[in-house]
Structures are given as C-alpha cells and as structure tokens.
Amino acid sequence: MKNTTFTSAKKKVITTLTAASCILSVSAPALGSTAIGNAIFGNSIVASAASAGTVVDAKNGNADLVPGRFYKSPNQNYVLVFQGDGNLVVYHYNKSTGKAYSPTWSSQTENRGGTKCVLQGDGNFVIYRKDGKAIWNTRTNGKKGAYLTFSDDGEIRVVSRNANYATTWSSRNNHGYAIEVADRPFIWPVPDCKAISSAFNDGRNHGAIDIAAASGTSVKAAAGGTVQTYYGYNGGAGNYVVITHNINGATYLTVYMHLSSITVANGATVSAGTEIGKVGSTGNSTGPHLDFSIREGSYYGTRLDPGYYTNLPAGLYNCTNCANYVNEINANRNKSYTLSSHTHSNY
C-alpha cells in the first residue's frame, strides 16, 4: 500500500453542480439519474455522542456513505461526496449560488471500480469494489467506536471513542492508502479460515496446500465450472470434489480433498463461491483440513501453486511448520501472475 501526494494535475474538474444535479467530470461519467434533492443535499448526519459535523458513526457497526450524497461542512463552505467513479472528493461550496467547485482533496481512487465507502466497526475507513476487494483505506483498524467528521475547513477525520476521542486519521496532507488488488483467477476456498498447515512444496511431493479448519466448515468453489464428486477412501483422498474450469480457453482443475460431506451434485455447474462441501478428515488424514490443489489440463496435469493463483485473504498465518511459505505468499498477495508462468514457491 502506498501513501500518495495530491497534485493539481490529479484534481478533478467539474462543470456545474447544483442541489438538483449530478457531478460531471472530465474523467468520469455522471453519477446517474438519481436526483439529489434537499433531503440528501443537506447538513451532515449528526449522530448522538459524536461531535457536530459527524458524517457517519460506526459506534454500533459498519456505517456506509451513501454514493452520490452530498455532506456539507457545518459552515456549508465545503461538500464531501463519494462519486460514481469511486472517488471520494471534497469540493468548495458556494452557498449563494448553490454550486460546488474546485476540488481540494480526493482519495485518488477514480476509475478503480469503487462502489462502497464505509467506516467499519473496527475503525477503518475503506473503499471497496463490487467484488468485495478493498482498494483504499486509512489504516485505522483496531480503533473501534469510530465516527467520521467533516470540519469547517474541509478536513475529514476519523475519531475513535476507544482511543479517548483521538483523531486516528485526518485528510490534512494525507490522501489515505491505496491498496493494490491482485486479480487472480481463483478465490480462497475456505473464506472463514486463514491457517495453512502444509505448504505447496513440503517435501512430500504434495503439490497442494492444506488449509486447517474445523470439521464442518463450508468449502466454496474457487471458480466457476463443472463438478465431479467422489465418495469413499479413494487412495487416501477421502471424499473429494473436482471442478473443471475453462479459463481463457484453457482447462484447469481444482481439487478439494478430505471432505466430511459433499453438498453439490455430480455433474452440476457451479459459480465461484458456491458451497461444494464441508471440511473434514476422511481418507488418509490426521485432522480436519482441506487439501486444495490447482491442476493444469487434467487431473494428472502440472500442479500450480495456490499461493500464487488464488486471491488470498489478509492475515494468512502458519499453524505448523510452513512459516517460510506463508511469509512468501503473504508478501506477494497483491501481485497477479499468468497461469502459464507456473510461478510457485520453493517452500
């Protein structure tokens, strides 16, 4: 993640902005046809127990900024808006003419696909894409009881009750932190679990990773495709599922072993994220986990390292003796790799 500097070259240019119109910019389309009436184009939402000028309050959980809504500073000299192009912007506002002009600050996230801007219950202020991937944040997670304020001088602040009402982030000379997103072909198959108990190259000719999880934890399809199901011991694999995928005209398979149960029908077509089974310890297994592999061309094809071709969740950790592997894939989690490159770890 990087902290970027805002320059005049990056300022957005607007044409005309009134209480009944949408933003127009040279680099983004209009916000849409939704009218911004007086009920929306009003003062900031003031929450109890927070200061005047509060925009949203995450005391009781996540609090979203409404896309396209204009939040005025208390003196109405500035407006804050999360635009349709995914950029969070502060503009000057002329009370006499009812027009906004001359942006003074932005998150610099235009045209990166941002659709959700939220102050989270954990205190972090984040912009997400539609697919749930974060593209920008203030790095203030862990400071719970937060609320967002917008001051008379156009400054945005994240303030935390749990930090004695200290400002944990300010837009003054700080444009937040961009998050580089890796667009990899497969999603993480056990969204609720982040513990890796066996690495891709662990000395056993494994060619897979083991994800430790409680028995019965939901296992998801890593990409869309056609399902084959197998029940029994199966040479030590236990109950397992194979999904065949067509990615850019090439065939890849993902394999999910040691399942306690299979929850999808043989021959079914699934989408990424569809539940296919539950974590278990069937077959040759010493405890509940998912043995997850990616294979090129066929079941016996080249094994690809899931650590480089799966969109890894933040916070993956080593729960046995594969710290080097986990450290390596965590360090590269925001990079993308072509499947044909066969990139893999030596751990």
From TrEMBL:
GO terms for molecular function: carbohydrate binding; metalloendopeptidase activity. InterPro entries: Bulb-type_lectin_dom (IPR001480), Bulb-type_lectin_dom_sf (IPR036426), Cell_wall_metabolism_enzyme (IPR050570), Dup_hybrid_motif (IPR011055), M23ase_b-sheet_dom (IPR016047). Keywords: Lectin, Signal. Residues 1-32 form the signal peptide. Residues 56-171 form the Bulb-type lectin domain. PANTHER family: MUREIN HYDROLASE ACTIVATOR ENVC, PEPTIDASE-RELATED. This is D-mannose binding lectin. It comes from Ruminococcus albus. The lineage of its organism: Bacteria, Bacillati, Bacillota, Clostridia, Eubacteriales.
